[in-house]
UniProtKB/TrEMBL annotation:
This is Uncharacterized protein. Gene3D superfamilies: Vaccinia Virus protein VP39. One of its GO terms (cellular component) is kinetoplast. InterPro entries: SAM-dependent_MTases_sf.
Length: 322
């Protein structure tokens, strides 16, 4: 007897990866229209959480070649299991052909940037040389469109933008050992326990990142993971999650300033602060780790079995003003 999930998939229309072969102006108009229809959801505003606002994303995966921008449907939550299955079955190969292959062939090394909050930060990194090509993902289409309009004309094929839920993209659509570095700039703390299921950098996240990263060749090889935040409690939480993930996959902690200094932001006061719009606390705490061993078959099986149920964590103590 067919399961409910399988029968539902049979009744759903087949998803295809649509490539828009229209003029740049038409592509921009379609993207702008999608980005301006926003569904705002606020989580614990009084406790200091950032308001999460996302565009009304169409269910059909679409690639806009003039902007190197792909739009994938929402995939988070247990109720979207059919969408995830259809994307893997019908879209993964085309996505890898149009997006991943272009990104992988554009430079000697590849970096995944999760979060598109600062175009100035991305521009500075891209301007440092041609060594890296960038796959930049975010849940907010408006951020991606703004960055793509600014960066694609200057840096061309070294930039690819993806509107997607990060966990699904990392777990299911990106091939193993495809990236040299993964950077998560200024992740949202989601201070309260009620909103904690939205925190990005967790044990499961460290596991899926481990799978897509290349193993370091030496202790000084700048391959690995780096993140930074102005919220010390979040940094402590992320460190706990890194240590927990080491029960499944091998990581070695690194000094971010030594091995991954190029990925740290400018924090000068005034116009040079690349994350002034996100910064609410003084100082900056960075965390870095390198992939010190392969992702074993046993670990890969665990990674592929990770579920999409909400998982709640302890609340973070918001620093007192004073």
């Amino acid at each position: 007897m067919f399961s409910y999930s399988f029968k539902a998939r049979l009744l759903m229309p087949k998803l295809v990866f649509v490539v828009r072969h229209t003029s740049p102006d038409q592509q921009k108009e379609e993207l702008a229209e999608a980005a301006c229809h926003r569904n705002g959801t606020a989580n614990d505003i009084n406790e200091g959480d950032i308001v999460a606002s996302t565009a009304q994303i169409p269910e059909t995966p679409v690639h806009f070649p003039s902007f190197h921008l792909s739009v994938l449907p929402p995939t988070s939550g247990i109720h979207r299991s059919n969408v995830r299955a259809l994307l893997v079955e019908h879209v993964k190969d085309d996505f890898r052909h149009h997006v991943v292959n272009s990104w992988a062939q554009a430079a000697p090394r590849q970096v995944v940037i999760i979060g598109c909050q600062s175009t100035a930060y991305l521009r500075r990194l891209l301007s440092m040389g041609d060594e890296y090509s960038f796959l930049i993902m975010d849940r907010m289409l408006s951020r991606l469109l703004t960055a793509a309009e600014s960066l694609v004309p200057e840096f061309g094929p070294r930039t690819q933008f993806v509107r997607s839920d990060a966990f699904f993209l990392l777990q299911q659509l990106l091939p193993p050992s495809v990236a040299d570095t993964c950077v998560v700039p200024m992740p949202v703390p989601f201070w309260s326990e009620q909103s904690s299921h939205q925190r990005l950098v967790t044990r499961d996240f460290f596991c899926v990142i481990h799978r897509i990263l290349k193993e370091r060749e030496s202790p000084t090889d700048p391959r690995g993971f780096v993140t930074f935040t102005d919220a010390v409690p979040l940094a402590e939480f992320m460190m706990e999650q890194l240590m927990e993930s080491r029960l499944i996959v091998p990581w070695v902690r690194k000094n971010p300033a030594e091995t991954y200094g190029r990925w740290l932001p400018l924090v000068s006061e005034g116009v040079n602060d690349e994350f002034s719009a996100q910064r609410r606390l003084e100082g900056l705490t960075a965390l870095a780790a390198s992939k010190s061993g392969p992702t074993s078959p046993q670990a890969d099986a665990v990674i592929q079995s990770l579920e999409y149920k909400r998982r709640y964590y302890r609340a973070l103590s918001f620093p007192a003003e004073g």
